[in-house]
Amino acid sequence: FTYTPALATVSKANLTVTANNDAKFVGESDLSAYSGVRYFGFVASESASVLSGGIAISRSNAAVNAAGTYSGVLSAASSTLSSTNYNITYAPGNYTIIPADQLLIRLADTSTTYGTAPSYTLSSVQYKSSTGGAVVDLTSRAAVNTSAFTLSDGAGGNTALTLAPLSSTLSSAGQVAVGSYQVGASSITNTSANYSNTVNIV
């Protein structure tokens, strides 16, 4: 008898690298590395440490400095990432140029296990004053408790809002499905005279 061994083929897993949404105030410079990227598709608890190469993010409308939100203009497609175990594809991010007197809240990247509510961490809270044009930093006056954001503006005004994943898909159990999401604000209340009720989160 002649035995022919069976062949087992292990295909690469799909990995999506998405440019995080980012923002700046009118008249200010872009951050050199923007807001980085997020990944979806790692298996067996792996992370970006298993990838070779580096991340490079560019803004396709870098010459534009007018206030507004520009969809899909941030790209990480020029990155040099590679892997023997993953097929890597790239998805774009949005860029917002924020006018004066609007809050910009930056959050640290966070992750959680399915069924467990995420807990967010502040990186910075700022607005650009329409009086004088200075960027005012309120980070030390802000706090986040799980998903509840609160801020005292130092002049008798207060802001509160709730943080949550944007455009999230729910499972049949009513939980946010596994995936990678941007974070947005809801239930905004604001009594500050220094900035408006418009809040931008990246």
Please tell me about this protein's structure.
With 202 residues, the chain is mainly β. It contains no helices and 15 strands. The protein is 0% helix and 40% strand.
* Number of H/I helices: 0
**Strand proportion:** 35-45%
Average of per-residue pLDDT values: 93
Distance between the termini: 66 Å
Oligomer: single chain
> Quick one: biggest sheet?
4 strands, mixed
Shape category? elongated
* Helix content class: under 10%
Give helix and strand order, one letter per element, not per position. EEEEEEEEEEEEEEE
Q: How many extended strands?
A: 15
Spatial extent as radius of gyration? 21 Å
Query: Going across the major beta sheet, what is the strand order?
Result: 2-7-5-4
- Category by helix and strand content: mainly beta
Could you write a compact summary of the structure shown?
With 202 residues, the chain is mainly beta.
Which descriptors apply to this entry?
mainly beta; four-stranded mixed sheet; 202 residues; 15 strands
Secondary structure topology:
Blueprint: E1 13-19, E2 22-25, E3 37-40, E4 58-59, E5 68-75, E6 86-91, E7 93-98, E8 103-107, E9 122-128, E10 135-137, E11 142-145, E12 148-152, E13 158-165, E14 183-190, E15 199-201
